[in-house]
Design a protein that fits this description.
The complex is a heterodimer of chains A (about 350) and B (about 260). With about 350 residues, chain A is an all-alpha fold. Chain A has two domains: about 15-105, no CATH class; about 115-350, Orthogonal Bundle (MetI-like fold). Chain A has 14 helices and no strands. Chain A is flat and about 85 Å long. The two termini of chain A are about 50 Å apart. Chain B contains eleven helices and ten strands. Chain B has helices spanning about 45-50, 80-85, 100-105, 110, 120-130, 135-140, 150-165, 180-195, 210-215, 240-245, 250-255; strands spanning about 5-15, 15-25, 30-35, 60-70, 70, 85-90, 170-175, 200-205, 215-225, 230-235. Chain B has a ten-stranded mixed beta sheet, with helices on both faces. In chain B, α5 packs across α7 (about 150-165) and α7 runs parallel beside α8. Chain B is globular. Classes of the chains: A mainly alpha (about 350), B alpha/beta (about 260). The interface between A and B is medium-sized, with 26 and 35 residues.
């Protein structure tokens, strides 16, 4: 077909391409420009410099790409730069929080902090062992309560509900529960316990109840989604072997989804472990170590941080250092949980490949 | 092993929609019976009613009788779970359990039902089933590897091994080779020829040559039009159906002059 070769004039498949050095060069140039303008007008404001540099960079790349490469490539570069910008913007607070917590928390992140409580401590010294133990116990108990309830609810919704009215109603109320303010959960738990055992100053188990109220909807929603992801073919394969429904669910469906379910539970734990208000109300406040979930107030890390920050003694810096160390400990616990969760998830994950 | 299935006046409904109408057929023991017909004519649906797997689909129900050596599968007090332990099924897409190894997959019917069995007996059963499915030589050195690590054709034979490890009387196969390449298909077809020595086999297939190659009896299903229920048009010895069918529609379908 001669028409094709005729219509294909030489060079029709080639297009201009910006040399590789151009984009980094423009980035450096824009950064320098941003800093310079900021120094001249804004007195060296870093945020102003960054915003100016980014905008200049966007415009410069757009112009360069349009001249050399054409409109389509310019659009591609514009989209890439906007996405990278959004990514960096989202990452900034995370990096900033981590840096602040590590740099300021390191001062008191010592042996004393992990071996002493605040009993009879005024001023320097003291530690958060009572709060760490409290957080682990309260959150652990909340997990023990929430996971069975949440997982079984999810199993009902995905395996038995089949969009009937009860399932729809449960889904609706679970969604409503997701939006319950945490202080309301705390007041609910406190009121419930007061009704049952009479007036009290709060205790660990009440805190666990409060956290469960917050945790259950998260566990339900994430587990339900994951159970729905299990291919129907596996259920059919199991039924075809004469396996009853309950064994199919416990031995095939849940194990196939377990790694995701574990991740969901860890996320739910991470979501509630930092709750302050409901624990202050329901679990109470103490300076002493308390290992009993069912009697006397129990300290938790968020409350410890809040108290050290809100009610400092004479030497404010000592209290602030303790607050930062507490915050760092909390971040470390969540990270550790995530790590354990990932290991557990990998251990149970469906085996593929060799 | 190998039991006779007699179906009389079977109707299948999805909600109000009648999917299959008035099917009566006798499936002989220790033979291969093939269901052929255009898509949507209800042959897979009908196959599923033979071990009550249609009940997995919400809204599906059945009227009529299916007798397994004289015992009605739809009689009062019949437990679908027990039915499926006697009538196994292999599906269109290979579906090994992703959390289990090759050996665990073969023994899934035993393990999932919490049956007690000594380890050596389990090993023997797994070997017998894998040999029965012509897969033993290929996997005997990697029984503890995940089932999902096998090729598609091997996975399908693994699923057949899993089904025959339950020692069923009847094996239902819903287009077992349609997702496989010709070599794997041949392996499955050879396997069916061996399996029919012991089991009653019913297979749904879209592949006319496959039906001609493997089956002793062929049943042709058809629909009058969209929304109409599927019907059994004609059933008979495969040779007769493929050479001199009684009904013109069968001849048209088999010779490709359909529609």
């Amino acid at each position: 077909m001669t028409t094709i070769s005729q219509s294909m004039a030489p060079g029709q498949l080639t297009a201009g391409r910006l040399p590789k050095v151009v984009v980094p060069a423009l980035l450096v140039g824009a950064a320098l420009l941003g800093v310079a303008v900021s120094l001249l007008v804004g007195g060296g404001n870093m945020a102003l410099a960054a915003v100016l540099a980014y905008l200049t960079f966007l415009v410069a790349v757009e112009i360069a790409a349009r001249i050399v490469e054409g409109a389509r490539q310019a659009a591609d570069r514009r989209a890439t730069n906007l996405i990278v910008g959004a990514f960096v913007l989202a990452l900034l607070p995370l990096g900033s929080v981590t840096w602040e917590a590590v740099s300021k928390g390191a001062a008191r992140f010592d042996v004393t902090f992990f071996t002493y409580s605040m009993r009879n401590v005024v001023g320097a010294g003291g530690g958060a062992v009572h709060a760490i133990v409290g957080t682990l116990l309260v959150t652990g108990m909340a997990t023990l309560i929430s996971v069975p309830i949440g997982l079984l609810t999810a199993v009902y919704l995905s395996e038995y509900g089949a969009k009937n009215r009860l399932a729809k109603a449960i889904t609706f109320f679970v969604d409503v529960m997701t939006g319950v303010p945490s202080i309301v959960a705390g007041l609910f738990a406190y009121a419930l316990m007061t009704l049952i055992i009479g007036p009290n100053n709060g205790f660990g188990f009440a805190g666990s109840i409060a956290l469960s109220v917050l945790m259950i909807p998260v566990v339900v929603r994430s587990s339900e989604e994951l159970l729905r992801l299990v291919p129907n073919e596996l259920r059919e394969a199991s039924y075809a072997l004469g396996v009853p429904k309950w064994l199919t669910i416990t031995r095939v469906v849940i194990p196939t989804a377990i790694s995701g379910i574990v991740s969901g539970v860890i996320l739910a734990v991470a979501r509630v472990i930092g709750e302050t208000a409901p624990l202050l109300v329901a679990a109470g406040f103490t300076a002493s170590l308390n290992n009993n979930l069912f009697a006397n107030p129990m300290m938790t890390l968020p409350v410890f941080v809040y108290d050290a920050y809100a009610h400092p003694g004479v030497d404010v810096q000592v209290y602030l250092d303790r607050a930062w160390a507490g915050a760092l400990t909390l971040i470390a616990i969540v990270m550790l949980l995530n790590l354990i969760g990932r290991l557990v998830a990998r251990r149970f994950a469906p085996k593929t490949g060799n | 092993m190998g039991k006779r299935i007699e179906v009389t006046d079977l109707n299948v409904y999805y909600g109000d929609f009648r999917a299959v109408e008035d099917v009566s057929i006798t499936i002989e023991p220790k033979s291969v019976t093939a269901f052929i017909g255009p898509s949507g004519c209800g042959k897979s649906t009908f196959l599923r009613t033979l071990n009550r797997m249609h009940e997995v689909i919400p809204g599906a129900r059945v009227e009529g009788e299916v007798l397994l050596d004289g015992e009605n599968l739809y009689g009062p007090g019949v437990d679908p779970v027990r039915v499926r332990r006697h009538i196994g099924m292999v599906f269109q897409r290979p579906n090994p359990f992703p959390t289990m190894s090759i050996k665990e997959n073969v023994l899934a019917g035993i393990n999932l039902n919490n049956k007690r069995m000594p380890g050596s007996e389990k090993d023997d059963l797994a070997e017998q089933a894998l040999k029965g499915a012509n897969l033993w030589e290929e996997v005997k050195n990697r029984l503890n590897k995940p089932g999902a690590s096998l090729s598609g054709g091997q996975q399908q034979r693994l699923c057949i091994a899993r089904a025959i490890a339950m020692e069923p009387e009847v094996l239902l196969m819903d287009e077992p080779a349609s997702a496989l390449d010709p070599i794997s298909t041949l392996a499955i077809e050879d396997l069916m020829n061996e399996l029919k020595q012991r089991y009653t086999i019913v297979i749904v297939t879209h592949n006319m040559q496959q039906a001609a190659r493997v089956s002793d009896v062929t049943a042709f299903f058809n629909i009058a039009g969209a929304g109409a229920p599927g019907r059994l048009i004609e059933a008979g010895p495969t040779e007769k159906i493929f050479s001199a069918p009684d009904v013109k529609a069968t001849e048209d379908y088999i010779s490709g002059r359909f529609g």
